[in-house]
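Task card 7
Instruction: Convert sequence to structure tokens.
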Amino acid sequence: MFTDQLREAIEDEYKAYYFYKSMASLTNDRYWLDFIQHAMDDEKSHYEMFQQLYYMLTGAYVQSLRKPGPVDNLKGALKQAIRDELEATDKYKVMMLESPLQEGVNPLFIAMHDEMEHAIRFSMMYNAI
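Output:
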């Protein structure tokens, strides 16, 4: 069901934001920090857009979200981030096509595009480290 997928996407975006915040603590390279901050800003935006869409569909917001544990290895975190971003791209593509509201198409398209960009940025970081 679409609302279940959307709830999962909200949780994923929330976790990604805090995962990247922890990941940022593992480098002091300004270039890489800009990449990570860019992804954090996008994940926060996706979270907010998806919460609004969820509210439009259900009349409630997703609450009681859990933050992930701290990251202790940048290369390992990047490897996981790349996988997560690519999986999100596929998930949002399907959700975009199944959205019961026309208002859901744009946020899902934006998130799908951003996740592809994050995968590219994190792949670059992974290969440079």
